[in-house]
Amino acid sequence: MRFLLWAGTLCTMSGLIACTSQSTISDPSQVVFPDSAVSYRTSVQPFMTVTCAFSQCHGEVNPAGGVRLNDYTGIMFSRGNLAVPGKPDESLIIQVLDKRIAHAASVLDRVNANHYAGMRRWITEGALNN
Question: Which residue among 3, 45, 92, 116 is least packed, with the fewest CB closer than 10 Å?
Answer without folding.
Answer: 3
